[in-house]
Design goal:
Blueprint lengths: L1 H19 L27 H8 L6 E3 L11 E8 L4 E9 L4 E2 L3 E4 L8 E2 L7 E8 L4 E8 L16 H10 L8 H6 L1 E11 L2 E11 L12 E11 L2 E10 L3 H13 L2 E2 L18
Antiparallel strand pairs: 1-2, 2-3, 3-4, 3-13, 5-7, 6-7, 7-8, 8-12, 9-10, 10-11, 11-12
Length: 284
């Protein structure tokens, strides 16, 4: 047990360091090039025991302080998620202590393989493999997987991909409406894009607004969802964590959602990992 707690402590400190070094300013206009060499499949393998120890942190809240450059921002109490089926992890907010605010998350979609996941568009390219929502506070955190859209990304060389291309590729496959890719992209307004290399892999970050349907009390021009997302490629597919809230709630919720997106990482795969290309139309 002492060994498990030591490993857990080390993992928590690692995520704490990696997450808090990505401040709110990382979503301001800032584009850098990323290059990477694709690791061998063996480098993605690890033991189930390691991931079980890693997953223990999901039951132990972790306090993440705000970056020093944003001292006015408060600390956020967070917990971690580990999905062995799709081999990724991230942290999500539990509480804003200074505001005495507690998030009310419900796991609306438990982690599942790509083949059985819910499609985000009629062509079923992009699919939600896990999701948690806070209905009362209008918050959504989801992980989706789908192939790159090579009508938008012109090169097959991952090292040449830009964050704007990745954002357009993902957003083009995100609408549930039967519209063209360009029409789906028109529903969204990309505010910021940038790229960071982590563990030898490029992670593409982007912030965008999505216009929602108007209501009797809210005019169309004022109704948006504010989103932040992180995308990384593996096995020919894009893995994307997206976090969003209503625009009017962004000042309060945005910093915590940015920490969630900054914490998103691919994990070494275990025997439970199911690549997206495996039996893509198997629904059981």
């Amino acid at each position: 047990m002492a060994t498990a707690m030591l490993l857990l402590s080390q993992h928590s400190l690692s995520l704490l360091h990696n997450t808090t070094t990505t401040s709110k300013s990382s979503f301001r206009p800032h584009i850098i090039s990323c290059s990477s060499s694709k690791p061998s499949p063996a480098s993605y393998r690890t033991s189930r025991r390691d991931l079980i120890l890693l997953g223990l942190s999901s039951s132990l809240p972790i306090i993440l302080p705000s970056p020093a450059s944003h001292a006015e921002e408060e600390e956020v109490k967070m917990a971690s998620v580990v999905d062995e089926i799709n081999a990724y992890t991230y942290m999500y907010p539990l509480e804003l202590p200074s505001q005495n605010f507690v998030f009310k998350w419900v796991e609306s979609r438990k982690p599942e393989r790509y083949s059985s996941a819910a499609p985000l568009s009629p062509d079923a390219r992009l699919r939600i493999v896990s999701e948690r929502i806070d209905i009362i506070d209008n918050l959504v955190i989801s992980v989706a997987i789908g192939p790159p859209n090579f009508q938008i990304i012109k090169s097959k060389d991952k090292s040449s991909w830009t964050a704007k291309e990745i954002a357009d590729s993902v957003l083009s496959d995100k609408s549930a409406l039967r519209v063209t890719s360009s029409q789906r992209m028109a529903e969204s307004s990309v505010l910021d894009v940038h790229c960071s290399e982590i563990d030898g892999e490029p992670y593409w970050y982007y912030e965008y607004l999505v216009r929602r349907s108007p209501t009797k009390t809210v005019q169309a021009s004022n109704l948006y969802r504010h989103n932040v997302a992180s995308t990384v490629e593996r096995d020919g597919f894009l893995y994307t964590l997206n976090a969003s809230t209503l625009s009017k709630e962004w000042d309060k919720m945005g910093p915590a959602l940015e920490k969630t997106v900054a914490s998103f990482r691919l994990l070494p795969s275990t025997d439970n990992y199911v690549p997206p290309y495996k039996d893509p139309w198997r629904f059981w």
